[in-house]
Specification:
The chain is α+β, with helices and mostly antiparallel strands. It has a domain of about 45 residues. Strands 1-2 form a two-stranded antiparallel sheet. A two-stranded antiparallel ribbon has the order 3-5. It is elongated. The termini are far apart. The relative contact order is 0.08. The structure holds 2-acetamido-2-deoxy-beta-D-glucopyranose. The site of 2-acetamido-2-deoxy-beta-D-glucopyranose has 6 residues, from loops. Keywords: Signal.
Length: about 230
Amino acid sequence: MLFSSIVAFLFFATSTVAQPPCTDKGKGVIDDCCTEDLPICVHWNGAAAHGVTGHHCALCINSQFPLSTRQTAPDEGCDEEFRVCVGDRPLAASVEGKDCAVCVNSLQSFSDPNDMDDGCPPQAPVCVNDSGADPPIRTRGTQCVAKCVDTSLTGSDQGCSRKYPICVLADGSDPCIGVPGVKCAKCSPASCNDGDPCTDDFCDPDTGCYHVPIPPTRHLRAPEARPDQETEE
Ligand SMILES: *[C@@H]1O[C@H](CO)[C@@H](O)[C@H](O)[C@H]1NC(C)=O
């Protein structure tokens, strides 16, 4: 009992007061002299130590991906679910944080519909808290949503970005004009209808519309093509 509390004391003392210098071994590994809980070696001021000897070990590094295609990639030390490294105060880029959050309200949602909050994908670009409200700017939220409304039959809808312009319901269909949707997509079945009876139109919400020519044999077998044809068996 006494021994273990001495060991605990020594461990605590060395990890907070006199931690030996650590060395960065790259991403995705526990750096030299760091632990599973605090895997990343940083400089004394919390800046990431890239490939060199640092000062102490940190939980995560904020990489500040917003507006990059990698912004839904987890920050170093975080995971797929809790992607963004956060601190007590808003973090500068490449600086240590103390926790991982689902997302951060990094941008005013009214400033530009093409802006995506840190950690959120283009299909659901707005970071909100459990009640669905915007947390204060540059603080954490708990889910990514699309605050979009169907405002156009054929063009872009309000609240969706240029790359995912169509506001749709959970099943991928169009809400009616003026009705909110739940995510942004490249297309909807309605927006993919090219009016050509000789193509089958498909929407893949993540890649866009497909217009597949209907094979001639299907035209011949279509019921409306029969009256002109011989019906002998
Ligand atoms: C969500 O944020 C709003 C506004 O910032 C706040 O009034 C509300 O209490 C928050 N809800 C939760 C569950 O944190």
